[in-house]
Amino acid sequence: MPDFSTQTEEFTPFSVISLDGTSHVAMSGKAAATVIRIKISYSSQTGKPLRNMRLCLRGRLLDDDETLGFFGY
């Protein structure tokens, strides 16, 4: 698992980072929705908590363990 305390990621309105460190992007123009489940609480291998990870979708702070739906436009 990547060290999220030092990792940075630039988010687009249709991009979100998952627990395994990969970016999932719902492409615009697609009719189907891609649902991504996120849990925003991590612990490092040493057991110490990492810095809080705050994800925003179009300016709205995501809640812990929130399920997101992405729809293409």
Automatic annotation (TrEMBL):
InterPro entries per the UniProt record, alphabetical: Ubiquitin-like_dom, Ubiquitin-like_domsf
Residue ranges of every copy of the Ubiquitin-like domain listed in the record: 12-73
A matching Pfam family: ubiquitin
PROSITE patterns: UBIQUITIN_2
Highest taxon listed in the record's lineage: Eukaryota
Listed name of the protein: Ubiquitin-like domain-containing protein
Species, as recorded: Caenorhabditis remanei
